[in-house]
Amino acid sequence: MKYDGNNQLFIARFEDGVWKRMRLIRWNCRWHIQGRDSRPTELGIGTPKVAEDRKIAFGYDHIRERKSRVLIDGKSLQPVGTREVSDRVSAQLRAVASSFPGMRVHTLLRDNHLLRWETPPTNNDRKPAAIPPPSELVLYKIR
Description:
The structure is a single chain. This protein is mainly beta. It has one helix at residues 91-94; strands spanning 2-3, 7-15, 18-26, 43-45, 49-50, 55-62, 68-73, 79-84, 104-110, 113-119, 138-141. The longest helix is centred in the middle third of the chain and has 4 residues, at 91-94. The protein is globular and about 55 Å long.
């Protein structure tokens, strides 16, 4: 991640004694990384994986965009495509079940398994006004 007024996403590889880097995405927004501890997550970047034809693929989840997948040429590191990724999590699983005010749903999807839990919003590690009752941490197998 690089900041020059707006945030940009780069990939880099150490090659012939120097870092070869390539900008993959230029967003028209920025995140102010400041404060300490609990901060809202506005960008999630997946683990790069080898895709077809010696390409590299990874997903990202951006707060202002849809979940997407970037495809990169493995040799040049040039981005060769970006596409939206359909959300495999149903609206029913994304709905808050708790009656505690302000609760949020969190999900983690890996292959065909989904982990789901609910928490109150971040509070920068200040003492909360009220503590919610425990919520369930549920693992689903997606077919």
